[in-house]
């Protein structure tokens, strides 16, 4: 009787363990089924291994790799499928901490064609803006489920940029503040540039801005270029992020834009 029960018990244990099996200390995988890989970077070994196992159970066609640093991955990169994305788990650290901000900048620069997604305990709007400003292609709060996290990573791989809904609500609050423009923009932009800035923050195209402000489109383009120079931005999206960060912090233009 016991000999008949023991094999059944072992089979049940094997079936439960198989989807979460770790082939080596740095990877969660089912061999021979992966065409791409996702690297989780987290210097906390228990955290990264737990996350890797959970993700591997959700995404059978993607090899989930967990490392303490990108240098560890580089030493074994030839053993794994091509890299699809990098998930940097900063935990409770602040994005503007020097070590974190430098890591984001370095990774986003070195892996320009591979989306870098930040996973963090916080969903603070200012932290999200800074992460994207430093080069991240997405910001995922730790409050989401593993399945949602995997979907958001897939969005970034497809070329999208994800930010939490809380960030959009914070941005809307800023846009709805009737007297928010004068305070942070006073002394840095001309009156006409302030009007263009407000239009840019609302996502309006140059043609619409020109129509609403009774300007030539070429004149609007000149204003946009001058605004970009003043906030040291390289494109319209970066202008919006920097201006919204300025509005949120309430800092003086000189200290925030230098």
TrEMBL record:
Residues 182-247 form the HTH luxR-type domain. Residues 37-157 form the Response regulatory domain. GO terms for molecular function: DNA binding. Pfam families: GerE (PF00196). GO terms for biological process: phosphorelay signal transduction system; regulation of DNA-templated transcription. Keywords: DNA-binding. SUPFAM superfamilies: C-terminal effector domain of the bipartite response regulators, CheY-like. This is DNA-binding NarL/FixJ family response regulator. It comes from Rhizobium esperanzae.
């Amino acid at each position: 009787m016991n000999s008949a029960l023991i094999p059944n018990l072992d089979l049940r244990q094997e079936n439960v363990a198989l989807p979460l099996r770790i082939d080596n200390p740095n990877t969660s995988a089912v061999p021979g089924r992966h065409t791409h890989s996702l690297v989780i970077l987290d210097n906390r070994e228990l955290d990264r291994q737990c996350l890797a196992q959970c993700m591997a159970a959700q995404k059978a066609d993607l090899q989930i790799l967990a490392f303490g640093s990108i240098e560890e991955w580089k030493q074994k990169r030839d053993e794994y499928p091509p890299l699809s994305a990098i998930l940097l788990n900063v935990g409770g650290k602040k994005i503007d901490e020097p070590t974190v901000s430098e890591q984001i900048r370095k990774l986003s620069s070195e892996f320009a064609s591979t989306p870098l997604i930040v996973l963090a305990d916080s969903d603070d709007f200012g932290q999200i803006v800074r992460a994207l400003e430093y080069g991240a292609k997405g910001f995922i709060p730790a409050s989401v489920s593993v399945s949602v996290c995997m979907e958001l990573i897939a969005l970034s791989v497809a070329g999208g940029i994800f930010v939490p809904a809380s960030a959009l609500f914070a941005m809307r609050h800023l846009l709805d503040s009737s007297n928010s423009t004068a305070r942070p923009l006073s002394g840095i932009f001309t009156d006409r540039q302030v009007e263009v800035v407000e239009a840019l923050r609302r996502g309006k195209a140059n043609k619409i801005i020109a129509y609403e402000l009774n300007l030539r489109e070429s004149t609007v383009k000149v204003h946009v270029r001058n605004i970009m120079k003043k906030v040291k931005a390289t494109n319209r999206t970066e202008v919006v992020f920097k201006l919204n960060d300025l509005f949120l912090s309430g800092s003086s233009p000189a200290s925030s834009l230098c």
